[in-house]
Known about the structure:
Blueprint: H1 9-15, H2 46-59, H3 66-75, H4 77-89, H5 95-122, H6 128-190, H7 193-196, H8 199-210, H9 213-221, E1 227-229, E2 250-252, E3 273-275, E4 296-298, E5 319-321, H10 334-337, E6 343-345, E7 366-368, E8 389-391, E9 414-416, E10 437-439, H11 450-454, H12 457-490, H13 493-500, H14 504-516
Parallel strand pairs: 1-2, 2-3, 3-4, 4-5, 5-6, 6-7, 7-8, 8-9, 9-10
Amino acid sequence: MDPNPTSHPILSYVLTRLPPSLSFKRPQKPSTEFDIEQPPPQPEDPSAADLHGLDLVERMPGLKDPAVLEAMSKAVAQVAQARSVLQTLGPQPDHEAIDKARARISEIEADLSPQMEEIVITSPRAGDSDGQQSRAEQAQKEKERREAAEKELLGLRALIQLDETYEAYEALLKDSEHKLDQIYRSAMEQAEPSLKGGFEAEAEQEEEEEINEEVIELLEKGKMLDRVDLSNRGLKRLPEAFGKLSGLVYLNLSGNQLEMLPDAIGALDSLEELCLSNNILTSLPDSIGLMSNLKILNVSGNKLKSLPDSICHCRSLVELDASYNELTYLPTNIGFELVNLQKLRVHLNKLRSLPTSVGEMTSLRFLDAHFNELRGLPSSIGKLQNLESLNVSSNFSDMQELPITFGDLINLRELDLSNNQIHSLPDTFGRLENLEKLNLDQNPLSEPPADIIEQGVGAVKEYMSKRWLQILIEEEEREKRMAEEAAMQQGPQKMGWLTRSVSSVSKMAGNVAEYLSPRANKPKQDSYMDQQF
């Protein structure tokens, strides 16, 4: 909850020196709750904080001036107050909980109206007295259901509001750091030379050393440029002035030593392709969300622990490569916004789950999430009916099952499930008619059995199709028995209706049987199990 001394050095320093009335009292016992998608919080090292403060004062000796510190303390009073409030409210919810809460709210709101209609339809019709009683019962049922729904919605919305409060707090920290920097610089303009120290001189020297001459030449050309390749130049930083190259359509900064990007990069609103791979970026600026024309973004091979929520505003994105990072989660709403995305690469990260909203990426054709810590896939994955290639291999002991909606991926052609702990394929797997390549190696599968798997993807599809057909038949028979029992209880007159009814399940079973029949006389297909993709 405290600002990070690395990203907010001045703010962190000032908060530790606030007067008692504004200071933040830490809880006596450390909280055991933390984001399940984040590593456990590490205990603070007071000596490390002190060393950081000393280093900052050496570079900014003006912080020792009581007048400067007093002005800064007043400027961060709002931060201290917000920090105390958040401590009272509790820890920030993890992203998985927020994702589930949003999905549950949508589900409740979607189900509420059909439930009310069901009450009206099923309420008995009778004479005046019976009708009055039935209306009263109907009103009571409606009231109870609405109260139950509202009670659950209240808790879910409170959870989301708490998360939004924390996000607002993060924005406040960033704004406060900028404000403190302005206060310091303004004070130093009027201060004695002894207080200015070497801060400004050191900053100017670093800027001169780190800005490549080639970058300076590019800045002089300004809007005349539309394509820039600065890959493998050893760049350590980009100046804010880089945002003035508003005509850029293509920018390649891969293979450098960039630790951060200037906020001004968001001004490149004409940019369509941005390559930042193989740097040492730990975060992306929120301003990246201003790139409304960005189609291809490659941030692979960095040290990103998360993607900014603002990336969801890059609605023109067609390809996103965030592989080879340290991502522990994806933005909750990423799927709701990036509806044009066709290729998503997030392999070799530390993802424990994919957000439910990923099912809204209806244009997605390629998804690679191998070598993560995925504990499963959201049921919404079945909405990706344009998906052609899916790789969720090497999630090892974390990946143990697939959702029943997996069979809705009707256009899937390539699937890699190797090196997981999947015990059985979902019963709907036989519906993947277009599947051509399948890798099930290194899974303790019992369904389908090993001898079927050895025969290749065709045999697996046929086996699972027959299994699905058998399930449909059994379900039909069960429903028929239940209908007969209900009809017998209500009288012989209901039997005529039962006889005339046509089961939709029978029709579905017939379709599956028709799908299987052409395969009966086909020779066994070659194994695809050794094919890698």
